[in-house]
Each structure stands twice: as C-alpha cells, then as structure tokens.
Design goal:
Layout lengths: L11 E4 L14 H9 L7 H5 L6 H10 L1 H11 L5 H20 L9 H10 L3 E4 L5 H13 L6 E2 L13 H10 L7 E5 L2 H10 L2 E5 L10 H6 L2 H17 L4 E3 L5 H13 L5
Parallel strand pairs: 1-2, 1-4, 2-3, 4-5, 5-6
Helix pairs in contact: 1-5, 3-5, 5-7
Length: 274
C-alpha cells in the first residue's frame, strides 16, 4: 500500500534515547567528549561538544574535530591538521571508555515515559528505538532502562545498519522487522537535528522534543527551578530550530505524544502523508 492511499493508524513509534526517553538534558555523552579532547590538550566547550549531538559517536568526534574553531585549536597545539588517525585515537582510546563509565549513571527515565509507552501499547503500537550510541554503551543504556520498566520491542544502533543518523536505515530496519509500511504508519521522535533528519529521510512523521533535550541541556531539577518564562523562551527557541530542520510537530517531551496521535491519525485519514 502506498503512503498516498494509506488511511490507517500509527503502527510504530521510533524513539531516540538520551535527551528523549532517558538522561534528561542529555549529559552522558558531553563530559566524555570534553575529556577525550582535553587528553590531547585541546579544550572543547559544552556548547561545542553538544552541537553535533545525535550523530553516531565516532561521527560526532569527527564533527567536533573538523569544526573551524576546534580545527584551529588543534593546529595551534599540534602544529598540524587533525587526521582520521586522530579521530580514531580520540574515539577508541579515550571517548569509548569514558562513555561506558558515564552511561549507566545517566540513564534515568524522563518523566511521563512509562505512561506514554503504556498508552501506545494500548493502541497496539510497536515501540522501537534508534540511537547514536555504539553497541556497548547502548546495551548499558538498555539494561538501565529495563530496570526502570522501559523495554522497547526493538533497539537499534548504528552498527546494526550501513550508516547511522541522519541516514534512515535504523528506521527502515525497524519497519522491516515488524513488517510495517508505508512510512505514513510510522512516527520518529527525538531531540536533535540528526533525529529530525533521520525521520525526514525515512519519510515518516517526525517529532522533536524540547524540554528534555540536549539543546536545553538541563536536568529535570534544573528545568523545574528555572523561571517559567525563561524556560519557555528556551524551549521556543529550540522548537524553531527543530521545525526549521523539518519536524512536523514539536512537543515539550515524549509525555505529550499520546495526546498528539489523534491529530496525526486524523491527518492520515484525510489523505495527508509525511
């Protein structure tokens, strides 16, 4: 059945992990990136470490080291341009062990996730995930989430497919696994630009989240303590960025997803496609 003739319900939601379903504010990868570069005598700020968030982690290292400001600092310290061998050394020798040490302690579920998943399951919707985590880190995240009651039907990471985000392959693998098509029957939700690009490249309904994500960069308690108008301004700014990247909708968090589903399904019934 083609997307243009599909009039049925949403059958699968593909969730991101850090900043979307776990790790409010997306902290687990940030310090490892900063520390890994520091070990090569190159300083990276928190905003610089967050900027490529959502990519596969080696791609993230590569994006940091090739950004103009970091490339300039690397050149100044090492008297040469960074190479792919440097990317591999930063990633394998330093980032990976640092990431593994940080993931489990930063995998608390975001508020409202379990109620969201329960509401989706009542509708018969499959729960899949995609991530930028490498397999070993992803497994630690999966195990920590399972202890808290969150167990998706399928978890995928970049090594399971030809390429990670923003390529659509993890979403397509999930669709293939559950025999779910067309893309109109699928929702992707995440907090970063690569999440949005992944969903749009797969041709599925794509939703961004703001309050819990990397661009806001606040823990649950920090967000709660921020003046309401300031928090809303920050969330509005992130929403503008995610919508400009192609998100069909933007929500405060995954907790609001069940309430949005009737709107999506009404659009499908009227003939709309992603």
């Amino acid at each position: 059945m083609s997307g243009s003739t599909y009039r049925g319900p949403i059958r699968m939601v593909v969730f991101d992990w850090a900043g979307t379903t776990v790790d409010h504010g997306c902290f687990a990868p940030v310090v490892p990136f900063i520390e890994a570069f520091r070990r090569f005598d190159v300083e990276v700020t928190v905003p610089e470490a967050r900027r490529p968030m959502g990519l596969g982690k080696k791609d993230h290292v590569r994006a940091i080291i090739t950004s103009p400001e970091i490339a300039e600092r690397w050149q100044k310290v090492h008297q040469r341009a960074a190479t792919e061998e440097d990317v591999e050394a930063i990633y394998s020798r330093h980032f990976v062990p640092l990431q593994l040490a940080s993931v489990e302690s930063s995998s608390g579920l975001v508020p409202g996730l379990l109620d969201c998943v329960a509401a989706l399951r009542q509708r018969g919707i499959k729960i899949a995930t995609s991530t930028g985590y490498f397999r070993e880190a992803a497994e630690l995240c999966y195990a920590a989430a399972a202890k808290q009651g969150y167990q998706p039907d399928l978890n995928l990471c970049p090594s399971d497919v030809k390429a990670g985000r923003p390529a659509p392959w993890m979403i397509y693998r999930a669709m293939e696994t559950f025999d779910i098509y067309p893309p109109t029957a699928v929702v992707k939700i995440g907090d970063t630009l690569p999440d949005i690009e992944e969903g749009r490249n797969a041709g599925v309904w794509t939703i961004g989240v703001t309050r819990t994500g990397s661009d806001i960069g606040l823990t649950e308690d920090e967000a709660a303590m921020l003046p309401a108008d300031e928090l809303q301004q920050r969330m509005n700014a992130v929403a503008v960025t995610l919508l400009a990247a192609g998100a069909h909708w933007v929500l405060d968090s995954v907790a609001n997803l069940p309430a949005l589903l009737p709107t999506i399904e009404d659009a499908i019934a009227a003939g709309a496609t992603p």
